[in-house]
Amino acid sequence: MKIGFLGPKATFTDIAVREMFPKEESVPYATIPDCFDALSEDEIELAVVPLENALEGSVNITLDYLVHEVDLPIIAELTCPIRQHFMVHPENLDSWKETERIYSHSHAIAQCHKFLHKELKGIPYTNTTSTAAAAQFIKEHPDMKAGAIANELAAKEYGLSIVRKDVHDIHYNHTRFIVLSKNEMPLSEDGSSFKGYKTTVMITLPSDRAGALHQVLSAFAWRRLNLSKIESRPMKTGLGNYFFIIDIDMKQDEVLIPGVVAELEALDCKVKILGSYPYYQLGLEISKLNTYL
Amino acid sequence: MKIGFLGPKATFTDIAVREMFPKEESVPYATIPDCFDALSEDEIELAVVPLENALEGSVNITLDYLVHEVDLPIIAELTCPIRQHFMVHPENLDSWKETERIYSHSHAIAQCHKFLHKELKGIPYTNTTSTAAAAQFIKEHPDMKAGAIANELAAKEYGLSIVRKDVHDIHYNHTRFIVLSKNEMPLSEDGSSFKGYKTTVMITLPSDRAGALHQVLSAFAWRRLNLSKIESRPMKTGLGNYFFIIDIDMKQDEVLIPGVVAELEALDCKVKILGSYPYYQLGLEISKLNTYL
């Protein structure tokens, strides 16, 4: 099975793919639409792209493609903790406090603001296109007094030395990825990473009016369906119109969810089920992952 | 007055600042936390950062800082359309169809997927750290058969020739920016860009249970308060707990909004008003902006 993911290699998306699908071939793509296209055109059987809180790739592009451009169901969700480390070339291990320039993706630099402010105050940054690119640059420039902020996989793949672990400001920070496929694919319910099922629906209201969302949520509330996420997004037809993405904390059934859909459609809402799928909480045990850069 | 914004120069944030505050001095900062810090430490009087749908800067970092790290009220919101253009060095104007490599930020490349797929199919990309950096690279390499995807300000500032306008896939795509300040600052209600007032509140539910959000929305619905945005975000204390960011379509008053807050607090919700402020729809008339790169 061939899996496409938002590259480059050694990013968090890559980590999620290696952990979830350790035995499969995986191929990095440059952009999120490239991943969708490759799946539509059968170059790959699964696509893994970030959905929320991602360092790499614009999450809104994923949502917009799911909603407006393609009809590819979500077959799984993967959640990974975001852990950033400060690393240098092994030749500079002892002198890392003399670092004169820090390389990383601008979002990673922002995420490690407190560490940088405290331990490397005033040292200039150079932005790179990914944290993996920063690690690669450090590997290729042992002569420079430079360090990178990147993940553990990047340190391993590029042979760098981590001098400070977990330098990100906010712990419990996670990225959610979704797995898309044209075909149903039963995924394992064994193992500690499997956490349950959810169903994602997109709801478009008939018109923008006070209390409309409240009415929509009534259909879920009186059935005691728990919602783990709700997000409003502007429609692409102009300002002032919104649709909602709602995650229901259960697998699609034959009574409750169809009942919600029928009720909302009777209220002139448009409802589309984007997927009903298992979700997994991955642990990022880098040492156990295959590496093949 | 000195205004800090998420840089570098010639980005969409820069365009928004120049259009909204044409006569003020503005200073680019490398990251969103740097903008917040500069404001906290009185280096600047206003900070402008992206809140939603941004190419540059992680929007979640803005929300997380607003909610967890600082107590800086929102004093205005600016909405700008996102327009991307394909541009080359003027020396390569006639031969632009022979472009051998495309430079841009990975999100901009993703946003212009259809144009690239149709008119420049198979041409490789190089990611840059911003669309402005791509434009600068093209300016410095007239000898290369290369093009950039960037905004009109970048074309103007770096003297490039736009050969295809509006090459982004999805029209009506906008970025929302917020303006933060320690002090109240009355902004103009004149002019066509002023669109009204909104109030942003953060609500934390007492526990994660079915129907809790529905109950919260009741407090708004029976008062006929229109909500233009709702978003759930995980708390930083672990998975499974959520807070909500809600935009109410009105200026803070002395009766309705305080009534909602009192009712929600009686239900053991935590409520924080992040700001009550005017919002503006900017038009991006680049030709009228001051340029000073």
UniProtKB/TrEMBL annotation, chains A, B:
ACT domain segment(s): 201-278
EC number(s) recorded for this UniProt protein: 4.2.1.51
Reactions it catalyzes: prephenate + H(+) = 3-phenylpyruvate + CO2 + H2O
Protein's GO biological process: L-phenylalanine biosynthetic process
Alphabetized CDD domains for the sequence: ACT_CM-PDT, PBP2_Sa-PDT_like
InterPro entries: ACT-like_dom_sf, ACT_dom, Chor_mutase/pphenate_deHydtase, Preph_deHydtase, Preph_deHydtase_CS
Keyword Lyase: yes
Pfam families named in the record: ACT, PDT
Sites annotated Essential for prephenate dehydratase activity: T175
Record-given protein name: Prephenate dehydratase
Keywords: Amino-acid biosynthesis, Aromatic amino acid biosynthesis, Lyase, Phenylalanine biosynthesis
Record flagged with keyword Endoplasmic reticulum: no
GO cellular component, one term: cytoplasm
Domain Prephenate dehydratase: start-end pairs: 2-182
Encoding gene (name): pheA
Superkingdom field: Bacteria
Pathway listed: Amino-acid biosynthesis; L-phenylalanine biosynthesis; phenylpyruvate from prephenate: step 1/1
A molecular-function term among this protein's GO annotations: prephenate dehydratase activity
